[in-house]
Amino acid sequence: MTGPYTRTLPLSWEDIDRDARELARRLSGLGPFSGIVAIARGGLVPAAIVARALKIRMVDTVCVASYRDRERGDVTVLKKIAGDGAGLVVVDDLADTGNTIRAIRALLPRAHYAVLYTKPLGVPFADTSVSSVSEDTWIAFPWDSSGD
Questions:
Q1: CA neighbours within 13 Å on the CB side: how many for 23?
Q2: pLDDT band at residue 69, thresholds of 50, 70 and 90?
Q3: Active-site residue numbers?
Q4: How confident is the model at residue 2 (pLDDT cuts 50, 70, 90)?
Q5: Residue 10, CB half-sphere, CA atoms under 13 Å: how many?
Q6: Residue 4: DSSP 8-state
Q7: How remote is the C-alpha of 73 from its chain's centroid?
Q8: Are 37 and 14 in contact (CB under 8 A)?
Q9: Which pTM was predicted?
Q10: Hey, how many other C-beta atoms are within 10 angstroms of the C-beta on 33?
Q11: Angle CA(140)–CA(105)–CA(111) in degrees, nearest 5?
């Protein structure tokens, strides 16, 4: 294992489905939301599940790059959306350091930020989350099991 990670938490598709439905349940009383913005790529699957659960058909993406292998890097915004985020819920898989949410919040300051999992450094940046893990845990998402 490389970097600061001493633990690995492998997640299944069933884990993601369960936790994304729980995220939707937690969001249901906070809306109504006019749309969902997935932070690509990690937020794509959770956002789709949340959108279906909340019956939201307006789904868009912001695209970022921040990890290279298991190393955190600078957040590069590759695709933006218009507006200030009012009425939107932005969904991601993980708030690790909070750098990704911070970058997107600068673009969409009025959005609500929801993630499946947080690490201690990322907790202050997520408005809604499902579960927390330790800073030294690498979360092995099922969509990452194929390599890239």
A1: 36
A2: low
A3: 92-93, 96
A4: very low
A5: 2
A6: T
A7: 17
A8: no
A9: 0.89
A10: 20
A11: 95
